[in-house]
Every structure is written in structure tokens, then in C-alpha cells.
């Protein structure tokens, strides 16, 4: 992630910003915030873990020569799929006859690191954008969509309606990280200027981790959401979503956060 370098104080100087993204996926986001003078309070509310069974994913991988499109909608999906591919003794050459679809630039970059060229990336980095991109391309085709356990059924439902055979095995799931509840309670007590949520699961787990009293305090803190679906979940759970970028990327989220505090400073 890139963020402008500056030696002058910015609107984020000294702002305590809670980062709830999964461990191992926060470094670029944190670095961008730090460069702008913010103080990231990193407390992941989700931990990515293997599914209860790899049987469906293994069956799909065994039939890769019958697949036309491989769809990966997150860096987590990329990592889970390739980790399993390697565990089964295969490598990137098993994908040579597939068209690979990434949901956005981060997923595409993760695939490039694995040696995979991405043919298709939607303009809208959400499930809706994936459907719009593929709807007219997949009739009569087989599509492999390794997914999160709690993923919406929008992609399989819409692409099956468009005539595709969609194979959607669970590749990974998530859980509450050990110790997160105590760390969140402490952070809320110390004071926060902004909550950040990068997926609906980060919001739901945040709520599950807090006592009623701490949750009430947390809801008084403005929240930044990466996109419409996450914002919808956050609002339904009682949070004040004050920041949402026009494009669902971490780069744009940082820009939107900086603009929010710049405006806040103008009114103080």
C-alpha cells in the first residue's frame, strides 16, 4: 500500500485507530496510517483457520482439468487454495488451462506472487462486480470458487442462473482470536478515535467479543468501513459508519479516513 510521505502534521496525527483486520494482513494498512501520524491499535477480531474438512476442495482440485474459470475473491482465498494445492503435490502448472479471476488488485497481486497471471479483474471489487464481469462469459462453463465458510451465496446463485456450473467448496473459515476480548476492552477504556472494519465478519466478531457496557462505549466511536456490505452490517449492529471509500480498497480507505479527520479538524 502506498501513502503520501509528509514531514508536516496531518489530520491523523495522534489519532488512535482500531485495526480489526486478521493478523498477517495488517502491515501495509498500519504502515500507511503510521506515515500519516496515526497510532494504529491492532487487535484482530478474526483469525483465519482451516475448514472442518477439505474433502470438497480436494475433490475440486482433483478435477482441475475440467474447470474453465478459477475465481478467488480474497487474499485469504488465494492462500488457502494454493496451500492446499501444494499439500496435494500440485503446483501452478495445474492451472495452465484455466482463466483466473481475481476480485481486486490485492488478490491479483497475491496470485502474481504465486506465479499466476490474472486474466480478469472486475471494476467493482465486490461480489456484485464479479457477477457483472462474468455473467455473460460463463454459460456452459465450469467455475471453481473456493470460498469462506460464511461467504454470501450471491456469486454461485447468480452465475448458476447465467448457465454456469459453479463448484464452491469451503477453503477456509474464521474464529475469534484468543485474548482479543481483553485487549479490546483495554483499548476502549484507553480511548479510540476511530474503529475500522474491512469485512462483515470483523464487525460481527467485534460485537461478540465485547460486554454490553464496552459495546455501548464502542458504538459511540465513529467507524470506517471498506465498502457497502460491511457498512450495512455495521449499521445494523448499531455503529455509526462515518467513513466509506468510493472504491473498496485499503488504499482508498486510508484516503477516506484522512479526509474524514481533515474535515473534523476544520470544524474544531
Residue-averaged pLDDT, rounded? 91
CATH topology of the largest domain: Rossmann fold
Number of helices: 11
Strand order of the largest sheet: 2-1-10-11-12
Total domain modules: 2
Question: Could you give the order of the helices and strands?
Answer: EHEEHEHEHHEEHEEHEHHEHEH
The global form is elongated
What is the CATH domain class of the largest domain?
Answer: Alpha Beta
Low-pLDDT segments, ≥5 res: 1-7
**Considering DSSP H and I runs of 4 or more, what fraction of the residues is helical?**
40-55%
**CA-to-CA gap between the ends?**
30 Å
Structural class: alpha/beta
Gyration radius (Cα, Å) is 20 Å
Q: What percentage of amino acids are in beta strands?
A: 15-25%
Please count the beta strands (DSSP E, at least 2 residues each).
Answer: 12
The main pleated sheet reads as:
5 strands, parallel
Tell me what the CATH architecture of the largest domain is. Answer: 3-Layer(aba) Sandwich
Structural write-up:
With 268 residues, the protein is of the alpha/beta class. It has 2 domains: 16-46 and 177-266, Rossmann fold (3-Layer(aba) Sandwich), CATH 3.40.50; 50-174, Rossmann fold. It has 11 helices and 12 strands. The chain has helices spanning 27-35, 55-62, 75-87, 105-113, 127-134, 154-161, 180-190, 200-209, 212-218, 228-236, 250-266; strands spanning 16-19, 39-42, 47-49, 69-72, 99-102, 142-144, 147-148, 165-167, 170-175, 194-197, 223-225, 241-243. Strands 2-1-10-11-12 form a 5-stranded parallel sheet, sandwiched between helices. A 4-stranded parallel sheet has the order 5-4-6-8. A 3-stranded mixed sheet has the order 3-9-7, covered by helices on one side. The longest helix is centred in the last third of the chain and has 17 residues, at 250-266.
Amino acid at each position: 500500500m502506498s501513502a503520501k510521505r509528509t514531514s508536516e502534521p496531518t489530520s491523523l496525527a495522534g489519532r488512535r485507530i482500531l485495526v480489526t483486520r486478521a493478523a498477517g494482513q495488517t502491515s501495509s494498512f498500519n504502515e500507511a496510517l503510521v506515515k500519516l501520524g496515526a497510532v494504529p491499535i491492532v487487535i484482530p477480531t478474526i483469525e483465519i483457520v482451516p475448514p472442518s474438512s477439505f474433502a470438497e476442495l480436494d475433490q475440486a482440485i482433483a478435477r482441475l482439468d475440467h474447470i474453465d474459470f478459477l475465481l478467488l475473491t480474497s487474499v485469504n482465498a488465494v492462500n488457502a487454495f494454493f496451500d492446499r494445492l501444494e499439500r496435494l503435490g500440485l503446483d501452478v502448472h495445474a492451472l495452465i488451462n484455466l482463466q483466473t479471476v481475481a476480485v481486486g488488485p490485492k488478490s491479483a497481486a497475491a496470485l502474481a506472487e504465486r506465479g499466476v497471471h490474472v486474466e480478469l479483474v472486475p471494476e467493482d471489487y465486490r461480489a456484485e462486480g464479479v457477477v457483472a464481469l462474468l455473467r455473460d462469459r460463463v454459460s456452459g462453463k465450469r467455475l471453481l470458487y473456493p470460498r469462506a465458510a460464511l461467504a454470501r451465496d450471491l456469486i454461485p446463485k447468480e452465475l448458476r442462473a447465467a448457465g454456469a456450473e459453479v463448484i464452491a467448496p469451503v477453503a477456509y473459515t474464521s474464529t475469534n482470536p484468543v485474548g482479543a476480548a481483553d485487549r479490546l476492552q483495554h483499548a476502549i477504556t484507553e480511548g479510540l478515535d476511530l474503529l475500522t472494519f474491512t469485512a462483515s465478519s470483523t464487525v460481527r466478531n467485534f460485537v461478540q467479543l465485547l460486554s454490553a457496557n464496552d459495546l455501548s462505549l464502542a458504538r459511540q466511536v465513529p467507524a470506517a468501513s471498506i465498502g457497502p456490505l460491511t457498512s450495512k452490517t455495521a449499521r445494523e449492529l448499531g455503529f455509526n459508519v462515518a467513513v466509506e471509500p468510493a472504491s473498496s480498497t485499503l488504499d482508498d480507505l486510508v484516503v477516506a479516513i484522512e479526509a474524514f479527520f481533515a474535515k473534523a479538524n476544520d470544524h474544531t
